[in-house]
Write a structure and sequence with these properties.
The chain is of the alpha+beta class. The protein has helices at residues 58-62, 82-92, 106-115, and strands at residues 13-18, 21-29, 32-37, 50-57, 66-69, 96-98, 118-120, 143-145. A 6-stranded antiparallel β-sheet has the order 5-1-2-3-4-6. A two-stranded antiparallel ribbon has the order 7-8. Strand 1 and strand 2 form a beta hairpin. Helix 2 crosses helix 3 (106-115). The two termini are 26 Å apart. Residues 13-122 form the LRAT domain.
């Protein structure tokens, strides 16, 4: 299951090391994470345009991959209060959101929940380490997005037109 010695606390960002990409989730307590998935599976294609927000056991999502707590933006951004982070995360569970590897990926989603601003430095990293797929469709392009996660309503849900959040 990765690092048993890592003891996540509610509100922590979880970085999961998959072959060729990194997946991000938010720890909500009792062994559970909230994260983006298409159809209950891991995001694996740059062609995914929709993702579902799911609450699942960390150990199930991680499998045999390595993971760690990585609140890497705490030095430059102030995290929201833990209760607010968890409340916001729970509002998104089972919702379908727009997904884009460069501007609205899983790291954007969880950093928006934790900090109030969606950021991902994976898309600006060297080619081969991009967000979810190992290759950025736009190498060297950084991504910083303010995502509307104050409540679930701003999301672009299946069959609805609105702002998107993932």
């Amino acid at each position: 299951m990765g690092q048993e010695e890592s003891k996540p606390e509610p509100g922590d960002l979880i970085q999961i090391y998959r072959p060729f990409y990194q997946h991000w989730a938010l720890y909500v307590g009792d062994g559970y994470i909230v994260h983006l998935t298409p159809n209950g599976e891991v995001l694996t294609s740059i062609f995914n345009t929709r993702a579902k927000v799911k609450k699942q056991l960390l150990k199930v999502v991680v499998g045999n991959d390595k993971w760690r707590v990585n609140n890497k933006y705490d030095r430059s951004r102030k995290p929201r209060p833990v209760k607010e982070i968890i409340r916001r995360a729970e509002e998104w569970i089972d919702r379908v959101v727009t997904y884009d590897v460069v501007t609205r990926n899983c790291e954007h989603f969880v950093t928006e929940l934790r900090y109030g601003e969606g950021v991902s430095d994976q898309v600006s990293a060297a080619p081969g380490s991009c967000s979810l797929h190992g290759h950025s469709p736009v190498p060297g392009v950084g991504s910083k997005a303010a995502l509307p996660l104050a409540s679930p309503e701003p999301l672009e849900l299946e069959g609805h037109s609105a702002l998107c959040a993932a």
